[in-house]
Design goal:
2 strands; mainly alpha; 77% helix; two-stranded antiparallel ribbon
Length: 153
């Protein structure tokens, strides 16, 4: 029996979309937790803490996650054949995701006040979301290229 027969294979545009959806989805989840933790505070502290996280997200996005997304896109772009649906990120990245999830669980159950954690969650969440948009832009570009190719046939 051939194991490849049971591999859920998809094309590169689907892999790019899945990566973008995952990054944006996790970013939205972290931002939602952040907003929930800031809700009990008066408006000014909410704005100050959320603003601090949003401001910190810019360099984290630009110098961190955006570069990782770029490297991942460089890995996906040359693909011409279908690949396993789970290959939208590398095995090493899956290990990093597991470490980040464990770290997030530990932080949420730590004695650190939730409004302080909200700053970190805003930073990471917004940076992930913005970097996820890089994948979505590439996905849209791939769709447009596919339409142009089919029109010329």
């Amino acid at each position: 029996m051939n194991a490849a027969k049971f591999t859920p294979a998809v094309n590169k545009s689907t892999l790019v979309f899945l990566a973008g959806a995952m990054w944006c989805g996790v970013g939205i989840m972290l931002l939602t937790l952040s907003v929930k933790w800031l809700e009990p505070l008066p408006f000014r502290p909410q704005l100050l803490l959320f603003g601090a996280g949003a401001l910190a997200a810019i360099p984290v996005h630009h110098f961190g996650f955006s570069r990782i997304a770029g490297k991942n896109l460089e890995r996906l772009m040359p693909l011409t054949e279908k690949r396993c649906v789970f290959s939208f990120i590398t095995w090493r990245s899956y290990m990093i995701v597991i470490v980040m999830i464990a770290g997030g669980v530990m932080l949420r159950h730590s004695p650190i006040p939730k409004p302080i954690l909200a700053v970190a969650y805003t930073t990471i969440g917004l940076a992930l979301f913005l970097s996820g948009l890089k994948y979505i832009r590439f996905f849209i570009r791939l769709l447009a290229e596919g339409r142009q190719t089919t029109k010329s046939i």
